[in-house]
Amino acid sequence: MSLFADAEEWQLAVGAQTWAGLAWGEVDAPPALLLHGWLDNAGSFAPLARLLPGRRLWVPDLPGHGRSGHRPPGTWYHFVDYVSDVLGLAQALGLQQFDLIGHSMGGAIATLVAGAYPERIRRLVLIEALGPLARPAQACAADLRRAVDARLALHDKQLKMHPDRDRARRARMQANGLSAAAADALIERALMPAPGGYVWRSDPRQTLPTPIRGTEAQYLSILEAITAPTLALFAEPATPYLSGADAERRLAALGPQQLLRLSGGHHLHLENPAPVAAAVAAFLESSLRVL
User: Fold this and answer.
1) What is the Cα–Cα distance from 39 to 68, expressed in whole angstroms?
2) Quick one: residue 180, left, alpha or beta (phi over 0 = left, psi -120 to 50 = alpha)?
C-alpha cells in the first residue's frame, strides 16, 4: 500500500516538461505550492501536508526528481530555469496568486520566484533556505571549467545500483542523517526497479557542478525584492551554510516577518513535522496581505 494513499496523485504536461506530484485538500481551498529540496521529491512534504488542513496543497516532484520527467537531452538544470518551471506549472494549475513554501533547494527557488514576481506570492515560507548558494566572481572561470569537464564525462557515469530497497533506504539514511521512516517517505517516489536491483529515478545531470553561480550581491538584491510576508524556519543546531555573517546579511535583506529556530536537522519538516506545521499554519492563517 502506498505511503501516500491519503493524497491525490497527479500528472501534468507543461510544454516539454512532464510533471508528477501529490496534492492534499479541497480544490477550492486557498492554494499553496510546495517545493522540495535537492534529490528529494514530493514525499518529503507528506508529513507536513497532513497537518495543514484548510488549504489546497500542490506538491510537485521538481523536474528530474521523483516521478516527474527529466529535462530533454542536451539541456541542463540551471537554477534560473526552475523559475520558469514553477511559474509555468502555476499557470497550468490556474494559480494566479498563491502561498509558496520551499525547503532547501526548493526554498532557494522560491526566493527567486518571489523576488522576480512579487505580485504572484501571497505568503512565503522558507524552511532551511535563504536563497541559492553564491560564489565570488573570481571563481567563475574555474567553476565553468569544472562543470564543462563533468558534462563531457557524463556518458561514463554509471547509475548506482542497490540490490534491494533496504540497501537503498540505508544509503539515504546515511546520506542525510534520516530515520528509516523519513527515508521511506523519500524512496517510494525516488526508486525504480532495474536489472539487478533498484536505481534512483533522479536525473544524473542533477549531480553535476553548476557552471556559473550568482554572486552574493546578486542574491541579496533578489531577497530585497521580495515583498510577500515571509516566515523563515531554521534547524537548531544550525546548518553550517545557513549561519554566520553571510546568513545574517541575507536575513537582513529578506526581513522576514517571522523567524523561528526549531530543534532538528536539515529535514526537520520531515522528521518532526508537528512544530513546523504549527508555525506554518499559524503564519498562513494570519491576515493576508492585500495585493
Assistant:
1) 12
2) alpha
Candidates 44, 68, 84, 104; catalytic one = 104
Count H helices, E strands: the chain?
10, 10
CATH numbers and ranges of domains, the chain: 8-138+212-285 (3.40.50.1820)
When pLDDT is cut at 50, 70 and 90, the band that residue 104 belongs to is: very high
- Kindly provide the b/e burial profile for residues 82-119, where b requires at least 16 CB atoms within 10 angstroms of the residue's own CB: bbebbbebbeebebebbbbbbbbbbbbbbbbbbbeeee
Spell 11-20 as b/e; 16+ CB within 10 A means b: eeebeebebb
Buried-exposed string 153-178: b where 16+ CB fall within 10 A, e elsewhere: eeeeeeeeebeeeeebbeebbeebeb
- Per the annotation, the verdict on 221 as an active-site residue is no
| pLDDT (average), residues 7-33 | 97
What's 93's DSSP letter?
T
